[in-house]
Amino acid sequence: MIKKLSLVSLFTLLPASFYFAQTTVFAYLKDADGKPVERAEVDLKGNDNDVTADKIGYFQFVDLQPGHYQIVITKPNYETKVMEFDVANEKRKDLGIVTLYSTLTSADQGLAIIDNDGDDEDSNSGQASTVGLLQSSQDIFSRIAAFDLGFYWFRPRGIDGRFGETMLNGVSMIKSDNGNVDFGNWGGLNEITRYPEISQNHAPSEYAFGGNSSVVYKNTKASEYRKGFQFTQSLTNRNYRNRTSLRYSSGMSKSGWAFTAMGARRWAEEGIQEGTFYDAYGAYLGIEKKFSDKHTMTFNFIGAPYRRSTSSPSTQEVYDYRGVHYNSYWGYQDGEQRSERVRKGFQPIFQIQDFWKINKNSSLWTSVSYQFGKDKGSRLDWQNVQNPSPTYYRNLPSYYDSLDPNASVVNPDGTMTTAQDAFQTSLRGWQNGDPNITQINWDRLYQRNMQQAPQNYYGQNGKRALYYLVNDVSDDKIWNVATHFIHNFNDTTKFLLNVSYQNYRSEQYREVNDLLGADFVLNRDPFAATNQPGKTGLYNEGEENVTKKVGDKMTYDYIFRRQEVKVNPGLKFSTGKFDVFVSGMFGYSSSNREGLFNHYLYKDSYGKGTDYNYWNYGIKGQAIYKVNGRNFIVYNGAYYSQAPYLEDLFVNPRVNGSVAPNVKNMVVNANDLSYVMSTPFLKLRLTGYLVDTDNETTVQRYFADGLALKSVDADGNQTNVQSAFVSQIMTDVKKRNMGLELGVDVKVLPTLSLQGLASIGQYTYQNDPTTYFASDATGVFGNGLPYTSLGKAYIKDYRQGGTPQQAFSLGFRYNNPKYWWVGANWNYFDDSYLDPASLIRTEGFIQNDLTSSPFYGLTESDLRRVLEPNKLPSSFFLNANAGKSWVIGKYYVLISATVNNILDNRKYITGGFEQTRNAKFDTFSEDLNREYPLFGPKYWYTQGRSYFINLQFRF
Hints:
It is a single chain. Helices cover about 10% and strands about 50% of the residues. Strand 36 (about 610-625) and strand 37 (about 630-640) form a beta hairpin. The chain has about 950 residues and is mainly beta. Keywords: Cell outer membrane, Membrane, Signal. InterPro entries: Beta-barrel_TonB_sf (IPR036942), CarboxyPept-like_regulatory (IPR008969). Its main location: membrane. It comes from Chryseobacterium geocarposphaerae.
């Protein structure tokens, strides 16, 4: 009688070290219809004895010693199966019948090589696409959400990606400054990092405590890759056009050595967005040494240098003129395209891991990682001249239309005209795509700089730059040390302990990139003369050289430091019909800022500041009730605190060391309950969830017009300020994310499956948080602090932004026995919003500064109309994919293709933000009533139909 296979856990599997013995282990592979699956490859991890199933699906391993083992079963068009088993003192061990289910979304079909490398410097971190988390998952909801919905910036449960954990070879890849993960650090190396282990949402993980947005664990042991070469060539029409990669793995030699190396390149002379280019490389080297059956060490190097340009968000006016592929960040110089926004960087990672099988019940993994390098982002800057961006509000037709038609205005070329004529000229230029109007005019910027008469500035004679390019630089040095300990008390009880330490140091500064024909630029605030009369305006008082040339630091220079320790014990056990997993967390972090510039406005700008220390704690639990072998009830709960990240802690770290008031540990209380069914014909998960977040701190920085500010000098003299760069801080923000998730996979025929998803959520703000305001134009306020309180921001019950709160998907998958497949699905999104800007929802927004009382005649209905939630249009999309694979002797060939947004829908807004440059009701409402508001919201639109074609060759 064939025994049933016993899995260690329904949702998480534990890789471990292995050793050889005297037992024969065997099993039979069958598909969902009970038919044998032949020619599947079965890989015994830590061993070079890979085998292939025969015509009746039979495979075996011989001479295995007692111990714990893991095998990975792969075959084109079938889900990758990962299994664990134990060998005792027995001659033969029968693993029974192992069922392989067909799949169309495995990473082997080329769908996971889509990269999310958009311009996220101008978008908040919460809008990160889930494309970065593509996976091969048994859970149908998670799989559809990642592969089909994630492409359209859908976030499961509306959870910010900063509340997750991504690990590479045992260490966290989370950046301490903002909590994000830079997936570009291993960009293009998909064949190396493609099979992560994932604990979904806030479920406990064996590798880290995590947050409430999944724990993703990637391991890159050189011996675990398929022996031989793998060549991949991809074509697409997104951020890049071409991708080429080659991987080689030696397998484990008799002397105990294994090597894996890979190189990749992605490039485009111009991407799908106008004026963008892409040039990125990826390299991996893995070396593994097996000292004994119980001891292995690995070395991993990962490096991915890149240089690419980014694209801009725009107002609806601009999209209506130029379409969704318009990009304001480029223009022509001497007839050649040139972008102002270029990101480039290289931050290689070096890692050493030690795997030690202490005894038959215990094992210990230890990881040491060091990452360093610079990330640079360029942008145009200017002094004492108008913003040269073609989408600056004074350069758009709507601005000229808002003026008296007979008013005199200055053309971009410096000539005078009337507002009426300027409107007609601007409108024709935008409608016809005149690059002198719709794009940056680099030649004009050079001409203005070179026309400057040489003068003496701070002892240097030359032409001062009015326009110039700068780089914002992050120079990082990150150490990580982590251990992962496992002890099996018996077959049903396991203890886990993870201990990690991170030392993060990042110098962040601005440097001169290009002077555009001038001799130098002044390291001086161009607004100081009007906003801070009588003060030096120097960004670094006391420095010898105020005139900066290419490569010199200017504007700001400071160091972020953070040390963090986490201890994460866990216990997994089974009793009766229950599987239980309890995980705890104790953490400590210490953060500080050291200023290297002495800013003219702030006494705390220079030198090392205070250490801000936070203790963290938490507990997670999972309970699985096995109704029977195919029906389960699953509960996941989490309650934990998280220290603020560096950019949330400091109000404006570029110029001072002040900390946002009342900053506390964020507290998360998350719960979900699921019904899971898994049969050969039906897979289903129905989940209800509730996630409450308290004490969150958010910081936004932008430029605002219409602010009634006053700067005060040392003698008490006041100066009115109407325009300024500002920081907006909200503390004690409370959020609630709740909803239902349903994922269904029905096998209608042996070769045909229907799949569906429904995600119905409601993500809201639960209170009116206190809002604080800071501005370099004001400096220190009358309270003696570099910020002032604006009182409460009335945003309770507003919807959170950044993702659709309703999503549905329905599709089919057809697998032909001749190893070709085709599939398609329909996706629908609704209830997507922009995050509410808090500044315009404070009491100051409705107060007339002349009377210190609400604006005359203002009614509640007027206010509701102006401040109603900014809801985005609903949309639907059709996707399709197809492919074919061949096995020719020892060679494997795969070709696959995916087309997203087949109907070329260009009306879907993936994200954006409200502009708050008019911070008073009278000017805000007046602007809102225009056909095209001068300061309307800025959006990112979906980019239309896209394709991805992938060819893979293994030999």
